[in-house]
């Protein structure tokens, strides 16, 4: 029988959240330039011109929403933009996740956020981030069973996803007191991503320590 890789359990856990973004869906270059030059109004005008010119441009809606949320603190405008993106391109799970995160973190509309996360899963059942976002929200609501089910679904949807294995491991370690199960989850993450998984585990552990 082959010996198993030793795993050092972290000293804390995390509510850190990371979502992947497809490089093709990155910010539009010109308004992104304006935004980084602190010309937020000009960036907003450029995004709005883009969606007016092409109402089916989901990326422009998303970038407009991000700008309105992060730079202008205009939650109504940001939500409207994120919802528009999900309407014109419902097949992209990232658009639903943007909406869900705003509803959860800014609106405290957990029912609406859950609906958005489930829509992301429906859009792409292989998207581990969608299950992870749902799991993190459920865990914050102390629904440990629901969170564990979501993380396990994420690991099944994408066995190579590092964060879902780590989120599962942290839940098993700190909520379930299941040291063996946690070690298995961490080991899977490390074997899939040997160059940086251990650092990621400790990073998420430190974030949890700050949030509890």
From TrEMBL:
<keyword id="KW-0802">TPR repeat</keyword>
<dbReference type="Pfam" id="PF13432">
    <property type="entry name" value="TPR_16"/>
</dbReference>
<feature type="compositionally biased region" description="Polar residues">
    <location>
        <begin position="1"/>
        <end position="13"/>
    </location>
</feature>
<dbReference type="InterPro" id="IPR019734">
    <property type="entry name" value="TPR_rpt"/>
</dbReference>
<feature type="region of interest" description="Disordered">
    <location>
        <begin position="1"/>
        <end position="27"/>
    </location>
</feature>
<feature type="repeat" description="TPR">
    <location>
        <begin position="128"/>
        <end position="161"/>
    </location>
</feature>
<dbReference type="InterPro" id="IPR011990">
    <property type="entry name" value="TPR-like_helical_dom_sf"/>
</dbReference>
<protein>
    <recommendedName>
        <fullName>UDP-N-acetylglucosamine--peptide N-acetylglucosaminyltransferase SPINDLY</fullName>
    </recommendedName>
</protein>
<dbReference type="InterPro" id="IPR052943">
    <property type="entry name" value="TMTC_O-mannosyl-trnsfr"/>
</dbReference>
